[in-house]
Amino acid sequence: MDEKALPGRLPERDRPWVMRTYAGHSSAAATNALFRRNLAKGQTGLSVAFDLPTQTGYDPDHELASGEVGRVGVPVAHLGDMRALFDGIPLAEMNTSMTINAPAMWLLGLYGTVAAEQGAELSRCAGTTQNDIIKEYLSRGTYIFPPAASLRLTADVIAYTLGEMPKWNPVNICSYHLQEAGATPVQEVGFALATAVAVLDAVRDSGQVPAERMGDVVARISFFVNAGVRFVEEIAKMRAFGALWDEITRERYGVENPKQRRFRYGVQVNSLGLTEAQPENNIQRIVLEMLGVTFSRDARARAVQLPAWNEALGLPRPWDQQWSLRMQQVLAYESDLLEYPDLFEGSKVMTTLVDGIVTGARIELEKVLEMGGVVAAVETGYLKSALVASLADRRRRIEAGTDVVVGVNRFTETEPSPLTAAGAEAVEQVDPAVEAAATASVREWRAGRDAAAVDAALARLRADAATTTNLMPATLECVRAGVTTGEWAGALRQVFGEYRAPTGLAGAAGVGGDATLGAVRERVAATARELGSGRLRLLVGKPGLDGHSNGAEQIAVRARDAGFEVVYQGIRLTAGQIVAAAVEEDVDLVGLSVLSGSHLAAVPAVLDGLRAAGRGDLPVVVGGIIPAGDADALRAAGVARVFTPKDFALTGIIDELVTVIREANGLAG
After folding, report:
1. Separation CA 49–CA 407 (nearest Å)
2. Nearest by Cα to 550 from 409, 388, 658
3. In the annotation, is 176 catalytic?
4. What residue spans of 213-269 are helical by DSSP H?
5. pLDDT band at 219 (very low <50, low <70, confident <90, very high)
6. Partners of 49 in beta bridges
7. Of 22, 143, 160, 499, which residue is the catalytic one?
8. Which position has the higher pLDDT, 5 or 192?
């Protein structure tokens, strides 16, 4: 009997999803070489990771860029960098995803210009600009402008691509970071769809797109989601996403064509769910998380990128990324998954799960819309507070052992791992010379331009920004004139202003029944009495451009619950600002959080600043993804304690902070 003719099989295998690895570091040339190697290994699309200065609209020689250049992605400061990034890669034949948000218009302008220089027809170019700014205010922190101005940029990009780049996905509504910031499946679906509604309303209300073409806009809206290890629930979440998207686009925007209403999404599975302890367990986590977005044919991802097993340790090496690519290839080409129709059709269990998420997400969506939409929900702090509280609850369950994390809070006995025996060599190392080279390069680029053309292009950009004119034409003029990333963003900062999002701490709930917190609270109060102060004061600082603030916020919440007075000014601070706050607020301890890998530059800058301000006695602790060798270097520089992801018990960390204060002040115990 022909095996392909077995009952229930599809007449033809389903087409595999686009397979990507999220890649970029050091320089455009180094990243180009990495792209070429990955494509040769069978990768079928590109996913570009940009460094933090590029994501936040700064050039490599800006003060805030110090220590961050080329570290978590590739620096792209001007057209020359974009040319080098895609040198020898035919963009007309490549599906390219760019994880870029606040300056998405700028990077799309650079990309389109390079594609045209290659001879590509823009109408043939396929890919995605993430271009979802809302989640940046809530979780990742790479926003620049206020929400309303940012949505205007998003709408302008959508209107431009509708006419010039019809195969391009101009926005990728991103629930990925919402989950990492604490969102439950219900919150993830509800909040992401609230963002999608805001984007579509902005396009509709801009007057740039005729009503009859809203279906074409909806057809190019894609989503980028997270998949956690509870993969059955994740399957239900994706089916719920599709059902609600179909409902919203049909009823709110009158889209009749079911193909245009289809929920189109790509996925990166949960990086923050990976553990530093027993990191070999991350392999099975990644595989299970991939199943959540591939098992259900009717809700299968269009594109998948998987993290590497060692992302909780540092920057993955090419071999680590290759391993994650091979996981996808084994599932797609060795297994029989793609040979069958939807495996959950008619499942009572799945239907019940989906209905529960749909009902809860609809309530969340309606709540946000009643507030006036997602912008109002961001500005009032409602969304951020909800995520901080939800993540605090999740952390409490892990600490209590209710939620098991293998190797972290259960089954912690382990043999030495051969995967990490190489120490620092187990992760990619970024050469410190990269930043100096990028700084020299951008200055050389500026020196070689037509200054008058640059000034004219920036003047046009500022003038157009003060009106309702679509900003894409002015941006393209800036690209061709040789304007830099920092100059483009700086011009718009002058018009739109710069924004600082709510921290979400005010509305975050405490831990309630944590039995150990009472003893720590007493130590805090006793230490304050011994020092003759009303309360111990903790400054939580986020130096540099690292916007991943989840850990810092959870420390702040738990410290406040333990009786500390917490000073937290949010993300993206210079060393000078942190030092000034520490001195002015007369704090007892400075806690720095750095997850971008820039700790060896950012932390010494704060230590030096405190010494210069006459407060070299003030103890400093650091938390982040910090290799053991770097932790030794930080301690040698004067850091009192170094905490990494393996230190998951927050109350224990707060207790240790009290010990640090007592040691610094010569108090016993």
Report:
1. 30
2. 388
3. yes
4. 214-219, 231-251
5. very high
6. 99
7. 22
8. 192
Distance between first and last Cα of the chain: 78
pLDDT confidence bin for 505, thresholds 50/70/90: low
In the annotation, is 22 catalytic? Answer: yes
Q: How far apart are CA 186 and CA 241, in angstroms?
A: 10
Q: Is 340 a catalytic residue?
A: no
Tell the CATH topology of 515-665: Rossmann fold (3.40.50)
Q: Which of 81, 546, 561, 588 is catalytic?
A: 546
Q: 10 Å Cβ neighbour count for 262?
A: 16
Place of tokens 């990166």: 268
Cα 190 to Cα 156: distance, rounded to the nearest angstrom: 25
- Give dist(CA 528, CA 534) in Å, integer: 6
pLDDT tens column, 371-394: 999 999 998 999 989 998 898 898
Closest C-alpha to 503, from 563, 549, 545 = 549
Query: Is 503:141 a contact under the CB 8 Å cutoff?
Result: no
Distance CA 667, CA 123 (A): 70
Domain boundaries, the chain: 24-377, 432-496, 515-665
DSSP string, 55-117: HTT--TTSGGGTTTTTTSSB---SHHHHHHHTTT--GGG-EEEEE--TTHHHHHHHHHHHHHH
- pLDDT of 7 > 80? The answer is no
Buried-exposed string 71-94: b where 16+ CB fall within 10 A, e elsewhere: bbbbbbbbbbbbbbbbeebebeeb
Average pLDDT over residues 412-440: 84
State yes or no: is 111 an active-site residue.
Answer: no
Question: What's the CATH code, domain 24-377?
Answer: 3.20.20.240
Q: How far apart are CA 285 and CA 289, in angstroms?
A: 6
Residue 548 is a catalytic residue: yes
Which of these is catalytic: 78, 384, 542, 599? 542
Compute the distance between CA of residue 342 and CA of residue 347 in angstroms, rounded to an integer: 10
pTM of the model: 0.87
Q: Is the pLDDT of residue 230 over 70?
A: yes
Tokens of 399: 């600490």
Q: Out of 25, 62, 177, 384, which one is annotated catalytic?
A: 177
Model confidence at 422, in pLDDT bands (50, 70, 90)?
confident
Q: Is 272 left (phi over 0), alpha (psi -120 to 50) or beta?
A: alpha
Q: Are domains 24-377 and 515-665 of this chain identical in fold?
A: no
- Of 78, 237, 548, 599, catalytic: 548
SS3 at position 181: coil
Is position 599 annotated as part of the catalytic site? no
